[in-house]
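REQUEST ID: PR-0412
SUBMITTED BY: lab tech R.K.
PRIORITY: routine
TASK: structure prediction, single protein chain
INPUT:
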Amino acid sequence: MTIIETERLMVRNFKPEDWMDLREYISKERVMIFECSWDSSEESLRKKAVEFSSGNSFWAVELKSTGKMIGHVYFNQVQPIESRTWILGYIFNNDYYGNGYATEACKGLLEYGFGNLCIHRVVAKCSPENEPSWKLLERLKMRREGHSIKCVTFKKIASGDPIWWDEYSYAILAEEWPGYDSMICKINVI
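STATUS: complete
OUTPUT:
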């Protein structure tokens, strides 16, 4: 199990028993307003927690002080793998908004990625209407690279017609990451 320790958090691989904390925030409309709908039943989230715990794409964010999981970060390599590009995403329990936890967790993962995984570029996307999310990306020193119009849909109105949303695209290169010059990252060339 990989654990990234920050000042206040443990960012770690999921465990099957995380389903209860996951359910606590996935079932909140305020949290999921910019996300696709999830089945928040116990059975479904037990399966999700097991699925998340079997890979390295979903990272549980746990408060060091209490051991409570307060959110998660998605951090995964995109294809082709030769591009050494990863995508970043996050969902946090709104009971913990405004404390800088999401920024701290994402910063820890970016530090780990640039220093240990030899990542070249990290990308992220969010709705222009989700100001806290794009402000978080900017606090991470990510650069807004684009604004796509009505390109995303995963919710429908009562008639069944899709709701289309705009999307901001953000990115940061390894050499733009603070302190990258002092990191040692070697790539195995075959």
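NOTES: Strands lie at 3-5, 9-13, 58-63, 69-77, 85-92, 121-126, 143-156, 162-173.
REVIEWED BY: pending
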